[in-house]
């Protein structure tokens, strides 16, 4: 069981349950998967034998970021002019992109997962939730198994959202037949994955979330059965809500999406929705009352051109809020650190149109850490304090990029932004990235393998 001592940290963002604060010029000690102590002048003589000490002078140490919405497989459709949102309507875009998704192979899902998680780790993300809803028939059912394999390779703490689509295009969905499953198929594989991988214990590295893709692309029974399975097995629920589909749901079912999900039981403290930009304040109140959380994905707002999500109203109503990168089809990077800055700046842009004030910069860091942990049902991650998981990242601020900023570590990421990879990322007490390298891995080989898998896709 390895222990690390980070000596002379310029600042550590500590949160013992009462909110983040800054401790200056302190040491941080880990033991195995957990943080052992944070304090001044921790002596090596009194520490576990074999403790590895590291000079952290100039470092700002933050809790590891917690991503709460992504679609890893979409990393293979990034930066393509032929799929540019600005040149296509939403329907044209969907008609063009889903046939591409339906051609992905099992290896594509594995290597795109490695690609996404590697980028996230480089930028301080230590827990990743992925909403994997794409299951082409030819690719088989072991796609999430391969994602767990990728997470283990990189040392990422991984929550797998087993998504799925059951409604045919002929009945109003946007999903090609090659990507459809029956409700029974979907639920059976969710159960298999929970039995095979879900670990609800402290410092768990593997969990499973039941996550039907979205109400417009699934039969009602799919959501009903998802609720029954998740509540029976004690796992979280997730889906897309409030991204323009409410009029469609109202036409089909006589109510908008939030009420529809609540009627089915797909709401509560064990449930979180992605996006929610089109919701009314009354709908947000209902979500707050039920304890349902929101994964806010700020960067797709730039591409989709929809209204900016009313985060001030959500916070004022007491909703649980996390941040997500979203998939590369609507955000061409997997950098949750950048999303903190984007989320704050977007709210500043629309401040004059809001009833409530923009939350403090610190709150946006909180959304990406303890807020994300709350959405995933975790009490052991998202904060730096003794007894919490040793999930953290460090930035050496002795650079020109940070001149004039170092007086306020709490606001730095949201207001200034971090434009480079971390100097160190630690997950569950293990250093997985340091000094520009993945520990024990050859990034050039990972790159070559991912590019070879990408080359098999026909665009």
Automatic annotation (TrEMBL):
It comes from the Bacteria. One of its GO terms (molecular function) is hydroxydechloroatrazine ethylaminohydrolase activity. Its EC number is 3.5.4.43. InterPro entries: Amidohydro-rel, Metal-dep_hydrolase_composite, Metal_Hydrolase, MTA/SAH_deaminase. Pfam families: Amidohydro_1 (PF01979). Residues 60-432 form the Amidohydrolase-related domain. Keywords: Hydrolase. PANTHER family: AMIDOHYDROLASE-RELATED DOMAIN-CONTAINING PROTEIN, AMINOHYDROLASE SSNA-RELATED. Belongs to the metallo-dependent hydrolases superfamily. ATZ/TRZ family. This is Hydroxyatrazine ethylaminohydrolase. It comes from Rhizobium miluonense.
């Amino acid at each position: 069981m390895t222990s690390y001592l980070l000596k002379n940290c310029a600042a550590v963002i500590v949160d013992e349950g009462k909110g983040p604060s800054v401790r200056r010029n302190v040491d941080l000690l880990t033991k195995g998967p957990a943080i052992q102590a944070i304090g001044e002048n921790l002596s090596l003589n009194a520490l576990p034998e074999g403790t590895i000490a590291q000079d952290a002078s100039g470092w700002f140490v933050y809790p590891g970021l917690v991503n709460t919405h992504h679609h890893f497989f979409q990393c293979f459709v990034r930066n393509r002019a032929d799929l540019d949102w600005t040149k296509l309507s939403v329907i044209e875009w969907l008609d063009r992109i889903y046939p591409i998704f339906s051609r992905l192979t099992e290896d594509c899902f594995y290597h795109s997962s490695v690609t996404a998680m590697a980028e996230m780790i480089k930028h301080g993300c230590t827990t990743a939730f992925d909403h994997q809803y794409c299951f082409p028939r030819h690719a088989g059912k072991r796609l999430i198994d391969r994602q767990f394999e990728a997470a283990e390779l990189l040392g990422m703490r991984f929550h797998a959202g087993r998504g799925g689509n059951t409604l045919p295009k002929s009945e109003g969905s946007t999903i090609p037949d090659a990507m459809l499953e029956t409700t029974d198929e979907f639920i059976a594989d969710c159960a298999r994955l929970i039995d095979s991988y879900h670990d609800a214990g402290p410092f768990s590295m593997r969990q499973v979330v039941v996550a039907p893709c979205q109400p417009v692309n699934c039969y009602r029974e799919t959501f009903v059965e998802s609720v029954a399975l998740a509540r029976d097995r004690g796992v979280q629920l997730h889906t897309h809500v409030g991204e323009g589909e409410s009029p469609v749901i109202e036409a089909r079912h006589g109510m908008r999406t939030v009420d529809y999900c609540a009627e089915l039981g797909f709401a509560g403290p064990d449930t979180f929705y992605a996006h929610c930009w089109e919701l009314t304040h009354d709908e947000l109140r209902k979500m707050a009352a039920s304890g349902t959380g929101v994964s806010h994905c700020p960067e797709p707002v730039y591409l989709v051109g929809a209204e900016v999500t009313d985060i001030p109203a959500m916070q004022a109503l007491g909703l649980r809020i996390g941040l997500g990168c979203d998939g590369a089809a609507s955000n061409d990077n997997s950098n949750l650190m950048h999303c903190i800055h984007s989320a704050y700046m977007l709210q500043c842009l629309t401040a004059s149109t809001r009833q409530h004030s923009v939350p403090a910069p610190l709150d946006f860091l909180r959304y990406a850490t303890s807020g994300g942990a709350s959405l995933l049902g975790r009490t052991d991650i998202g904060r730096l304090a003794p007894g919490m998981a040793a999930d953290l990242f460090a930035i050496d601020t002795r650079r020109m990029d940070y001149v004039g900023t170092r007086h306020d570590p709490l606001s730095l990421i949201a207001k200034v932004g971090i434009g480079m990879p971390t100097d160190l990322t630690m997950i569950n007490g293990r250093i997985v990235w340091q000094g520009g390298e993945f520990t024990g891995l050859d990034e050039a080989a990972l790159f070559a393998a991912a590019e070879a898998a990408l080359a098999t896709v026909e665009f």
